[in-house]
Amino acid sequence: MAKHSEPTAPVAKPPAKRRKTNIKGKDINQAEQDLSPFPFLKLPPEIRNMIYKLVLVSKRGMHFQRAYSTVEKGRCLIKRRQMHIAGKGNAKDEINAKLLRACKQIRNEATVLLYSCNRFQFDDAGMLPQFFVQYATHVRDIRVITLYIKHITSDACEKAFSALVHADQLESLELLYDLYPVSQYGGSGKEALRASAEEFFGVARFWIEAEGIRRGNKRAALKVLTLPNDLEKPRECHYCKGKFIRWATKRTEDEHKVFWAMLRKYLR
Hints:
Layout: H1 28-34, H2 45-56, E1 62-66, E2 76-79, H3 104-116, E3 119-122, H4 127-134, E4 144-148, H5 155-163, E5 172-176, H6 182-185, H7 190-215, H8 220-224, E6 225-226, E7 236-239, E8 243-246, H9 253-265
Helix pairs in contact: 2-3, 4-5, 5-7, 7-9
């Protein structure tokens, strides 16, 4: 007689796990996903660069001046027009350098844009060499510099031009100073212009000649230079304990042409 196997009882399925919810009824698992890190580095390089520029590039540029503090005397501070770069402010284009601390890859990618896309304004010629020493590895990335010169014949100014030799990718050097004050040369004729051009060349000669050698053109530095009269509008220069100076030239366009002509003679 054939044996009949006993019917197997259906295996009971374990009850479905209930999703944990918070007091407001939100799915906690979904909330944990929302808190997971955004895969920023998986974005295309072009998109990452756009984000870097939004965070690190300012239309106003960055100002550098001495710290007038007994605690940090002589320390090089990165300053905006009203605040320290790391300070809190409401400026729409405030630079947020904290992004550089995210990770090594972001720091390497973004640092180049920080230096190459911003205008660096030094309100004291003596600060430029100090900054170049402190951030030597990034100097070659700088493209635009504005330099306030109080006395063209000062040692600080000569050292600044010597330091500029290391900024071998520089595209624009804006100089803010009175090229040839009448009080110094006793007049505004060609003799004063000649003396001013000779004085300027003597101070900036090391940088001018280095630019000529690097670019294969003795007058290459003249294409990089921008004088106050050539600016579309005067610059505001922040220096010396918060004082503001609006730079405007008192010289005519013809006088500037004469100055440039005199300067070119030294570059034959």
